[in-house]
Amino acid sequence: MDRIRQILLGLLILTAFDLAAQQKQMTYCNPVNLDYGYTPIPDFSRQGRHRATADPVMVTYKDDYYLFSTNQWGYWWSSDMYNWKFVPRHFLRPEHKVYDDLCAPSVWVQGDTMLVFGSTYSRNFPIWMSTDPKNNEWKEAVHEFGIGGWDPAHFVDEDGRLYMYNGSSNVYPLYGIELDRKTFQPVGTRKELLLLDPDRFGWQRFGAHLDNTFLKPFMEGAWMNRHNGKYYLQYGAPGTEFSGYADGVAIGETPLGPFEHQSMPFSYKPGGFARGAGHGATYQDKWKNYWHVSTVVVSVKNNFERRLGIWPAGFDKDDVLYMDAAFGDYPHYLPDGPADHLKSGFTGWMLLNYNKPVQVSSTLGGYTANYAVDEDIKTYWSAASADKGEWIISDLGMLSEIRAVQINYADQDAEFLGKQQGIYHQYRLWHSADGKNWRILADKSRNKTDVPHDYVELEKPVNARFVKLENIHMPTGKFAISGLRVFGKGGKSKPAPIADFTVLRTETDKRSAWIKWKKPDDAYAVNIYIGTEPDKLYNCIMVYGDNDYWFKGMDKNKTYYFSAEAINENGVSARSSMATVN
């Protein structure tokens, strides 16, 4: 009889695996689940080897999406912005150091051709071209490019003229120059375009709390879009190590300016699990909806330990460029047609296990269990080994409707340097109503892909209180989790609105404000919405646990408007009344 039960359980597991493999994905969750390479630079791994990439560029080419980023020894393509296939490729010639391959690349489409160029101050770095990047067919468009630059970006205007932008410094500005579209050689001279102004714009100040004066802030990662005859020069600031890493935008009437800063960064996500949204690219999907891909901060084992995020974006009726970061690391709908990104793509599936009780099979040192559910990508639980059978159980506290689970692996005692092929994670997810009787939620025991931020969307919701993640195989290092995140709907009521929402701004430093509120007892977080116009509260900061927040990102010359909402496992409250500070 026991043997029959084992066979039936095995068939059930295989069936669940096959059904999951066939399911059409409707949603995604940041950080993007890519097979990120491990940092190839030995000096960056002194505190532990780890995955890393940043500085992404996304282009739509022949109805597919192509994603390039720093030092990955290749690139990805996708037909749906969810399932990504890696294409191995070195873009440097043999005389260059391989580990610095294609740092902060520029990628653009010119006619029927995709072109790629990497960061360099050398004059012998080629520009590559392809009409079949899916099959890795490339040739040199220019063997020796006459002008170099770090963090380059190329832009083809509607009249066909080609421009290049570059800059990565806390001293020098962003530069721009026109190029001949056939020879790629300079037309005229390089022009200084933009500098930061942290004395006016608080968000441009350096440091984790925008109060660090030992370094000037960095400006980097240029990108250009044109919309309704205006030019939107985008840039990353103030430093890639910080949660406040953001993309600002300056607007001009010509491709080479002059440009005027927008008061607020348009791509900004200093709170939540996946923090930071700087040095990225704004692109359109196959339905012409705008999106922004950018860098997510980890910065634990090295300042340059980072991931990628994809966010809905667009231009409003007044031609203001925005990015929607509200619930930006919760499940969102994938594109499937024309959409208005001012209407949120958030699914409404709430986080069910923030700071809830956790049980584990073992613990390595101080990497304790609750780090897996504290909504901080920098902290993680680690088992004592990578053995098959290590596990972690998350107690949701009540019977809840589960819709999706995100598994964020951490790098503990990883052994790899550089991009790895053929590595994979294998695991099983279980669910239970009582913590004793378990059923399969998802089975990845036969998975052969590298899924460091795996996201499991259930075909049908499941009612359960407990979720168990069981390790089968790790690609390297120990079984370690920075976020076991369970999404769906709890079994109780939404929180009441926030009370006593107050914003205090003084004449001493008008770039800063102290935001205070009374959080409902049943809320675990709040969203704070911020803008310089009452109907354009496009920036959002998610704050867990606390009832105050020091916001130091304001333009000292502008009036600001604030509102907030409470969040729990069951939903979101109505927003508070508007607070205005002059």
Structure description:
The strands form nine sheets. Strands 23, 24, 25, 26, 27, 28, 29 and 30 form an eight-stranded antiparallel beta sheet that branches. Strands 33, 34, 36, 37 and 38 form a five-stranded antiparallel beta sheet that branches. Strands 2-3-4-5 form a four-stranded antiparallel beta sheet, with no helix packed on it. The chain has one helix at residues 2-22, and strands at 27-28, 57-61, 64-68, 74-78, 85-88, 106-110, 113-117, 127-132, 137-142, 153-156, 162-166, 174-179, 186-194, 220-227, 230-237, 246-252, 259-261, 275-284, 290-297, 306-315, 321-323, 332-333, 350-351, 358-360, 381-382, 391-409, 426-432, 439-443, 453-473, 480-489, 499-504, 513-518, 525-531, 539-544, 548-551, 560-568, 571-572, 579-581. It contains one helix and 38 strands.
Keywords for this structure?
Immunoglobulin-like; Jelly Rolls; 5-stranded antiparallel beta sheet; Tachylectin-2, Chain A; 3 domains; 1 helix; 8-stranded antiparallel beta sheet; 582 residues; mainly beta
